[in-house]
Amino acid sequence: MPRLAGKVAVVTGAGRGIGRSIAEVFAREGATVIATSRGGAEDYAEVPKGVEYHRLEVSEPGDWDRVVGDVVDRHGRVDVLVNNAGVIRYEPVHELGVEDWNHVVAVNQTGTWLGMRAVIPHMIAQGGGSIVNVSSIWGTAAVAGAHAYHATKGAVRTMSKNAAITHAADGIRVNSLHPGFIATPLTDAQDAAVNDYVVSRTPMGRPGRPEEIAYGAVFLASDESAFMTGAELVIDGGYLAQ
Ligand code: NAP
């Protein structure tokens, strides 16, 4: 039996990179997937079986109301939320502008909160659900610069633990997922020196693939992880073990 058979799952930032892979692997594992991105259906040249598209700007409360309301109207429930959408900037503390700080916080942190806020009432009403919040190795350890990214990914880690404890009795599990360096459009667009540095410090000596994160998300979304909440799943080629 597919690992996510019968589950209705919302995935943010699913237009490319890790989020797209999560949407595709979830669909292969039997979920009904609501893949969201700022571009919506325009982000997809081909429509994988089992995937629907919605436009969702994660920092907009009204977008969450619209999308989650539509999902519940049409499917009757929402079993899984993957808060994956994220942005990174590399400025250190004193070089970061207020607008850029606010943007990173709005997407990575406020977006994650708004997503949880939108689905939790439905998950309470239906008796449970699984929320997977994508943090990063930079949610627990530091690299020079990237101050706003660290602030938000650390917040995602502790927000997940808070929601996990608050809603354990409601049957809602909340875990954070911590990728190491993964080859995606995000990392492709970065300075090669930054990428080489992170890969060179990864014990397995290579970038991860989006699917390697997607299968971790499948585990957290599925009933295989039924006794797991408030935990951190690190998939990083050994980076944080050092
Ligand atoms: P990516 O290739 O840049 O994809 C990011 C996705 O997030 C895109 O679909 C993007 O949509 C979406 N997004 C950005 N801002 C958004 C907004 N305001 N509202 C809705 N969607 C928005 O990045 P990725 O590498 O796949 O990263 C995915 C997640 O993993 C992020 O949270 C990232 O921090 C985390 N992560 C990545 C790595 C890595 O090495 N790649 C490592 C650790 C953690 P648009 O196309 O509309 O911009």
Task: Walk me through what this model shows.
By secondary structure, the chain is an alpha/beta fold. 42% of the residues lie in helices and 15% in strands. The chain is built from seven helices and seven strands; from the N terminus they run E-H-E-E-H-E-H-E-H-E-H-H-H-E. A seven-stranded parallel β-sheet has the order 3-2-1-4-5-6-7, with helices on both faces. Strand 4 (80-83), helix 3 (98-126) and strand 5 (129-134) form a beta-alpha-beta unit. Helix 1 (17-28) crosses helix 7 (210-221), helix 2 (61-75) runs parallel beside helix 3 (98-126) and helix 3 runs parallel beside helix 4. NADP nicotinamide-adenine-dinucleotide phosphate is lined by residues 12-13, 15-19, 37-39, 56-59, 84-88, 107, 134, 136, 179, 181-182, 184-187.
Shape: globular
Q: What compounds are bound to the protein?
A: NADP nicotinamide-adenine-dinucleotide phosphate
Whole-number radius of gyration?
17 Å
**Protein structure class:** alpha/beta
Q: How far from one another are the termini?
A: 38 Å
**Strand proportion:** 15-25%
One letter per element, helices H and strands E, the order comes to EHEEHEHEHEHHHE
Indicate the mean pLDDT. 96
- Care to count the β-strands? 7
Uncertain stretches of 5 or more adjacent residues: none
Helical residues, percent: 40-55%
- Largest sheet features: 7 strands, parallel
**Please, how many helices?**
7
Q: Which sequence of strands runs across the widest sheet?
A: 3-2-1-4-5-6-7
